[in-house]
Structure formats: structure tokens, C-alpha cells
Amino acid sequence: MPTPIAIVGISAELPSGTYSKANLEHSSFFDFLLNGEESYECMPDGRFNVEAWKGNNRGEIRVNAGSFLKDIDLFDNVEFGISARDARTMAPATRKLVEQCFLALVDSGIDYRNRNVGCFTSGTNLELTNVADPDEFDCEGSFAGNPSMISNRVSTHLDLLGPSVPTDTACSSSLTALHLAVQSISNGECDAAVVAGCQLNHRFGRAEACVAIVVKPLQQAIQDADQIYATILATAINSSGGGAPPGAPVAEAQRDAMRRAFKLAERNPREVDFIELHATGTAKGDPTEVNWVGEEFSREDEVLIGSVKGNIGHTEIAAFLASLSKVISIFRSRQIPPNVNVKELNPAIQWLKYQLRVPRSPTPLPCHSARGPLIAMSSSGIGGSNGHAVLEGPPTRGSLDSRAEIMAAQPSLLVSAGLSSRSTVAFSESITNMATRSACEVPVLSTILGRRSRSMTWRSFAIADSASLGKLQFSSPQLCPREARPVVFVFSGQGPQHERMGRELFERFTVFRHSVLEMDRIYETLTGSSMLRDYGLFDGCGSPGKLKDVWPISLILPSIAMFQIALFDLLTSFGMKPDIIIGHSAGETAMLYASGAAPKEMAFELAVIRGRAFAPLEALGGGMAAISCGKEDAEEIIASVRSELPDNILEIACFNSPSAIAIAGHDIAITRALELCQTRGVFGRKIRTSVPMHSSMMERCREDYCRELRALFERYPGQHVPQIPTYSTLTGERLSDSIDADYFWRNTRSPVRFTQAMERLTASQSCTFVEISPHPVLVSYISSMAGDGSPVISTMHRVKPNMPSVDHVDLLRVCGELTASGFNGVNFTALNNRACYECDVSLPAYPFSKKSYALYPDTPGYAKQMEPHLGPLNHRYLRINKDTHPVLAEHVIRGEPIMPAAGFIEMAIEFGATALLHVDLKAILSLSSETPPAVEVELNSSYWKVQSVTSHDWHSGKQQKRLHADGYLTFEPSQPLKDIDIATIRQRCKNHVGSCTQFWGCMTGSILNGGFCTAFYSSLSYFSAYGPRLRRVTNVYYSEKEALVSIKGMDNALKQPFNGNYDQNAYYLPAHVDAVLLHRNLAEEQLPHHLYAHVVLKEWWPVAKHHIDPLPAVQRPLHLIYQPAFFAPQQPTPASLSCNDPLRIKLDTINCYVSWLACASVLGC
């Protein structure tokens, strides 16, 4: 069985449609599903000019609705350290992936920056940008738009060091990405991984989504107390091979992927409680998938299946992860949301045979296994890439054991963190408001915020208690280094001890208390006394009256060691483990244990031995003092005192810093030295001890002390070598050899070389220093030597008498200061004794400051998608063939579809012209080309022309073009013609021929000898064929002097291809114009010239605006009226075709008329 993988983080942006003004995130998405909502809506403005391209033909867009993410142009590049130029060049999907992967990693709380975390992503890197030409100037020096950047940009900006792999297997891309991530983790290539998919588009029925998850080994997730959303037992992927065409699903291949996954998971398909299908709703895909699922998963009771695509559509690349978001919430809520839009079941699926059921209302999730709920998920990509995943619910974990020290009123550490100082401050304000409203959740909130801070580069903190929740004071944000500074624990020597040290820690924290009690038993064994019972230390229940202002050395040294060792145990139990250890004087006792060189018992026994051995020296009248001067000044003071008091000992005991020295010797000499310091303006003070450590006076105890030291090391034999880097203040160098008894004699007798040790330690690195002491004594010395880049943190502080203890607050402050400095080791779960998963805490959204970036570069390619069209036959990107304009292709001459002359007229009219002049048709435009040629409709002043590009030499940049039509136009308002009484004309035209009821005879016959409407189209079949949508002449009423011809107006056959295509200024009616022109063939052959020379087109305007719905005049016919010509009959062909208002078409030359009839009209124009 492969390594079970836990999903520990998730972030999602899913379409909401009209359900919400914002995109759906993971939790709100499930509410959306439970409510049976849908996200389909009209295409958002700014994505694509759908009205300009709408239609049912090739090169057009059939729908204007889908599932869209809102505000995909918004991005906070500054927060991620991305330049504005890169952000502009970066694919919008990549920007979304950076953002969502970051949020998923934040949600997981894992420490991912500069760590071996993999990145497996898929996104529409080119889907939105392929409409735009590249801008070589904007992209210079940037690789933001490269396909590899789909994952590499995420790895770069989030500082992930594991494998960075982009995937593209179409609709199964995100499952493929998950499979690769699972394999990479199982093979040890990375410790964790982020898996994400983003689909952004503008086309048919697709949907948009961006989902990211974080995965890591299950056992590690349990150990780290991570939020576990679900467990991935196994994944499998394969290919359909040559089993079917690339676009067809193959049941056996899909089944094989499922079987592989269940074999790896060592589970039975019949244990599955719910199956989330790929189920895209296609006639072929659904029966193929569902029927094999029924065969494999069927059992005695029903099998529940479903798919999220009914709610949000097919999110393609992100489809699997969108479904996974649903499945995760099913595990959490034990509810299966309803499938929407299931009006009737597909009869091609064997529902009853396999007892399959699609929930149509919220349904409880059944459980068929004692191991917990089990869900299967399938995914398939067009082209044959299949996959399957088997998931189990998260493991059952109870709350952490309650402890007496965890009380409702205890203080909590709240960390505010972000990728910038701005976001850190903004988030701290949100935290303050939230903590005020949810005081009971503050410990869990502390755990969550602390875990999440590990992924942030800027951090601040505040300590909250019941009194300060409404007025939290956050520290100033600090920038954390990419490489965490080493943490140095500095153990102080004697001097800071006080009777209340550690008392609150002993009361509230089990680890500290147990460590103290363990050492107190050793102390009682060795001395016969108890620090707790006999001196009242730590628990405050003993006899504090025994303690004087200056403690005996036999108590000072073991009590300091006890406090330091117990505090060390407490800090390390919260994850604060040092990288380097250094001990100052007596602090090297605790250093022996903290460095791993000796067990706790040995180190504490050493402290007791030291105190007992040094006790006789207290009667010698010795002491110590600290003076603020350098070595040279100290030696001068010592020399002066010696000259005055030659029989007294005074020596340098400690080199604390270049400007701080400790001296030891006889008390009278110490007092005189402090007097000299005062006269010289040098600060000096006595140290609270009566033992002159690190001076020659210590020789008095050498024999007894060394004997006990040797006995101690004999009781604990072996090499006592530090296990972590440790610096000796005896030698001033790093310790590399085993520590022995002689070392601790020299530690007692020789001066403390703290300055030298610090110089060696800080010579090549910045560190974070933590002084382990009941009260700060070394902080100022460390700060003076560590430099500005090295934080120095004190642990505990002595409070004034009768003031409440601040041990707990101090502890939290240490954790906060360490975390703010860039340390990621604090275990906030242990610190709060509350896990992040124990209760649902609704956190404030991350405070991005987004600004808009154009979805497309401002290039000609973008203009193509966004520019409005003057009309269906007049725009800069016009391409025409039988597939793009099938109505025009019904105009067939000698077996080849060609552009009707009316089409060229329409192109010119769509400029908004009121009249066309000197129209000349030059050449036919064939519509039979498999690839539609580009057609250019140009206007220069009043001159217009139509030409097609016949060839393009990309090497020379030259194009070959063919001119098809040209002429002139005007935009001047036309003079309206006098109204014509059609009814009166109809009465005068007694003769009538209808295309549906009469046969008109052949074209060679006279109109007076018979009719010809239907037969007219048939009579042209020897050289032309008109499709049904171009056959518009319906009736002719005539007399000897005039005729009235009816042309079929807008009907469903003609309306459907153009329905809703164009705005109210469109004139698109080439079929009608073609009929107007075509009837002239009839007129020329059958009517006297004086009749056909003047044609009046009535009711053009309402018909031309046929798309306005409803329009009463839509169905009315056109009436062509033939009356005596304005021109003499002997003038062969001049004619005037006019409309009532606002359009007139004039053919002013015989050349034009001959062109129409000879090269177009005769061909059916």
C-alpha cells in the first residue's frame, strides 16, 4: 500500500453567478451546492465582445452565458514581489495560481518557504493570451508568459524548493498533477506539495475556477497536528491509447485506472459510499462512464453518484479539484449535496440494473466500512488521459488533554503576519476585531495564527488576555530573513536569582513543574533539604523566610541551574530548540545538559557539588562586582587598589564585553574599586554573592571540589561531547572535545572569556540570542557585541514585591519575539494546548491590496476580440466562406457558392451610408474555400472598396489582393419619397401570379402568357441554385403599365442564423436585397423597360431592423412597385432603386448595371 497522503490545506475561487457578488471560496462553495444553486450568467463585460461574434456558424460564438470568475483582472503584485511589467505579461491564470497556492499553503500552516515543497500545477497559460499578439517590448527580459511558468512562477514567488512541474492533460490535468505530487512525496522527492489548477476562458459552456490544495504524508500531518481535510489512499492514471478517436471516451481505460487505484489502496470498490464522476453531460461520455461505474461498484443497496458540473459547468483543468472541494466538505458535513438540472435520467444509462442514484436533495453520506467513509473520484481528459482517486475521511482525533494550567483567562499569543508590512498591520487590525468578538476561541486562534505565520516574511505579535482583547498592542512588523538566523541560548551565571523565579511557570506548565520536581528530588537526596519545602522556591508553599538578601552559594548555584534547566525543558517542549549554546560562568552547568553533553541528573548534580564545594569560601570575606569599562581601565583600577591594599586579592573575573568587566576578590578591595569607579565616572555595582568566583581565592576549595568532580564523572562515564554547536567561555572558542572534570575546575578558577566567545560566534553570522535567566543580566552585553542584525531576547523578568508575576506573559513574549524575528520552530499547538482543528474559526480574509491588470495586452489581437463590428459583413477581421456565412453560400452559381452582389452592397451600407453611388462589381468572391479568406472592407473619404487577400508572403511581407467591388457613398440624409398608395396600385394590377399556387412557365415565355415565381428559381438551375433562405419572391401583381412584386420578409428560416447578432443599426438583409436585385432579371425579361426602370422599395426600414423583437412589421412583405420610368425608353439600362427612408441605392452608369447583370445579376444577384 502506498503512503497515505493527507490534504492539509485548501483554497478556492469558484464561480458564483448571481448567487453572490463575490467568488465562492471553499466553505461557501459547499453552502452553494447544498442550496442547489447554479453559477451560470451572461458573459462579463470586458472579457470578449460576444455580441460582435455571436452566431451559429464557424468563427462565431453560439452562447453568451457560462460560469465566470469575478474580478480576474485584480492582482496584488506588490505583495508577492512581482514587478508591474511581469504582472502585465504574466498569464491571468498564473497570477491566480500564485495567489491561490499561497492561500492554500497559508491555510495548511506548514513551514514551506525555502523548504523542499513541490509544486504541481496546471493552468490556462495561453487560453486567454492566445487571442493577443505578443508585445516584444513589454516582454523583454521576462519569461512570465512561458508555459513552464505555470508552475515555476508559483515556486519562485513562494520560494518552494521541491519539483516544479506544469501539467496539461486537458480535463484531467489537476488529477494528473495530484498523482505526480503523491508519487513525488512517496518517492521522497519532496516533503509536501501544493497542487493547483486554474481555468480561465471565454468560450462555449466552459466554466472558470481556481483551486489549490496542499498535501503531505498522513503520519507526518498527524504528528504535526495539521488540519486534515481528507486522506488520499491512492491515485492512478493511464491513457486510452488507440482504443478510440481522441475525442471519444473509452470505458475500459477508465475502468483500468479505477482498478489500479483500488488495488494500490487495498480497498474494495463496493465499500465506496459515494462516487464523484467526471460526468460532463455529453451524450457519449456520461453513459460510457456511468455504466462501467455501475458494473464495478454495484452491490445490494444503492450506489450514490454525482457531479459538480451541473452547478458550475465544466471547469476543465480545475474540474477534478473543484470536485475535490465538494468531496472534502462531504467528509466534513456527512452530507451529499443535490445534483441540479437533472430533469430526466439518461435512458442510455442502466440505472435500475446497477441501482444507481443521483441525489436530488441533500442526502446523508452512508458508511459501508468500519474504517470510515470512502469516496471515489474519476477524471478524464479529452485525448484519452484518464485518472482515478480513492479518498478516505480524515482520521478521528479528539481534543488535546485538558490541563489545569490551561484556563479561560490565560494570556494568549497572537501573531499577525503577511508578505508586507502593510498587510501585516492590516491583518493585526482584523485580528483585534475578531478576538474581541470570539474570546472563547482565542487559544485556537493563537494556534492557527502562529502556524500560519511561518509562511510569512513580515511578522508582529501581541499578547492577549481577558482585559486587553479590545486594545491589543501589536509590535512593529519585522522583516524575516530568507535563511532563519541560528538561535543561540545564552545561560547566565549567578546574580539574577530571586525567590519568585519560575513560580507561575511551575503552576501553569506541566513540563516545567515535572522538571523542577525531578531535580528537587536529586537535591533532597544530596543535601537532605528541598528547595520547595524548605525554601519556598518555585511553588511558594515552603518557608521563604529562610532566604536572606544574599543567598548562600549552596542554594544559588543549584537554584539557578534548576530554573535554567526547567526553562530549557519548557522552551524545547514548545519547539524552541537552540542551534547554538553558550554558558556564562555558572551557566555552563546548565549548558552541559542543554548541549546534549550530559544527562539532566549529571548537570544538576554538578550544580549541587559546586554549591557545596564553594560554601566554605563564603567565610573568606570575598565578593564580586560588575564595572562598565574596558580591560585596560579595569587593570588600572585593580592596580590602584592593589597598591593601596597589597594584602588583598582583586582580579578580573569576567570579560563580559569590550566595555564591561567583572572583578572578584576580597570584599574590602571590591568596595575600594567601586569607589574609584565612582570618582572616575565609571558605573559599578556589587553582584549578590559572597564567593569570589574566577579568582585565585578559589584555590582554597580546589582539592575537595576536584575530588567530587572526578567522582561525578566516574558515575556518568563516557564522552561528554556537545551534540549541538557550543561555545566555551573558558577558552573563548567552540567546544569540540569531550568535557571532563578538569574543565569544570578551570571554569571555576579562570576568568570568563565571554567577549572572546561572542566574537568567535558572531564573526561570520547573525544570530538570534535568547538569555536563559530569571532576570536579564547579559542582554546589554550581548546587544553591544551582536550587531543590529541580531535580535537579543530576554526570557524572564523580576517584578517588584506585591506585583503579580509575569512569567507566563514573558514566556509568550519570548515566543512572539522569536517568531517575529523569523524563527519558525514554535509549536503553537503545544503552547496553547489547543489544536488548529479543534473548532471552526472563521479567519479574516488575507488583506491583499489588488489593482487591475488588463486581461490582454493592448495589441491588434486583443482588438480583434473586443472591437465592435460595424455589421456582420463589415469589420476589420472579416473572413468569409460557406461555413462562416452559410446563408450567403446558398447563392450557388455553376455549382460554386459565391458572394451575392447584395452582399457587397451590404458591406458598404454597414458604414452607415444613406446612398451608394457608382457601384462597380469587379470580380466574384468564391465562398468554397476550406479556409475562409480575409476580406477587407475599406473606406477612404467617400470611396469604398471590397478586396480579399489571396496570398501572403510572410518573408517579404507582401500580400496579393483581389478587388471585388468599389464605389462611393454618402452619409447625407436622403429626401423621403412621396408615400405610395400600395392598395390603389394593387387594385390597378388585376393580374396575379403566386409562387405557391401557379406555374409561371419558362423564362423565355412572356409574362402575359403565364406566371413563373417558383418555376423562375427552377429555370435558373442550369447555371444557378438558390437555397431556401434566398428564395424570397412570392407574388407578382401586374398590368400593362405597372407591377407590384412581393418579397418574403423576415421569417424563422432567415431569422435564426442572425437572431440577436447585431445591434439596432444593423442592415443585415442580403437575402432581401438579393431578391430585390434578382427580380430585375424577371423584370428585364418579362416587363417593358418603362416598368422595371423605376423600382420603389417600400417598408425597407422595419424589415432591416428585423432583430428588434417584438416588431409588428417583421413579418410584412416587401413591395416592389413598377411604374413608368423617369428616363426615356431608348436609354437602355439606367435605373434607380430607392427606398422610402433612409436608404437609397443608385446605379448611375451602364457599366455598373451591366456588371451586376453580367457578372452577378445573371449569376443571381
Automatic annotation (TrEMBL):
The keyword Transferase applies. This is Polyketide synthase. PANTHER family: FATTY ACID SYNTHASE, SI:DKEY-61P9.11. Residues 2-393 form the Ketosynthase family 3 (KS3) domain. The active site is at H891, D1074. It comes from Postia placenta MAD-698-R-SB12. It comes from the Eukaryota. One of its GO terms (biological process) is secondary metabolite biosynthetic process. Keywords: Phosphopantetheine, Phosphoprotein, Transferase. GO terms for molecular function: 3-oxoacyl-[acyl-carrier-protein] synthase activity; fatty acid synthase activity. Residues 860-1165 form the PKS/mFAS DH domain. Residues 990-1165 are annotated as: C-terminal hotdog fold. The keyword Zinc does not apply. Residues 860-976 are annotated as: N-terminal hotdog fold.
